[in-house]
Amino acid sequence: xxxxxxxxxxxxxxxxxxxxxxxxxxxxxxxxxxxxxxxxxxxxxxxxxxxxxxxxxxxxxxxxxxxxxxxxxxxxxxxxxxxxxxxxxxx
Length: 91
Description:
Elements: E1 5-10, E2 24-28, E3 37-42, E4 45-53, E5 70-71, E6 73-75, H1 77-83, E7 88-89
Parallel strand pairs: 2-5
Antiparallel strand pairs: 1-2, 1-4, 3-4, 3-6, 6-7
């Protein structure tokens, strides 16, 4: 079943361009695939994150769904990983 809920893993602040650790759930308005890079809003500002799961079942986030933040920007993965440029793709 398709949902607009995804999970992401943030970029490691000590090892740039690697994504690990705990997954965090978000709602998205743009079509995304596993492995896409996005700009994720956090309570500490925006962070680069990699999509680790799409179509997350609502039952997994039932208690926190009203608090989920919105992903609106996808990053050009090739430019970011090779040239360290954050280039947002048009949605």
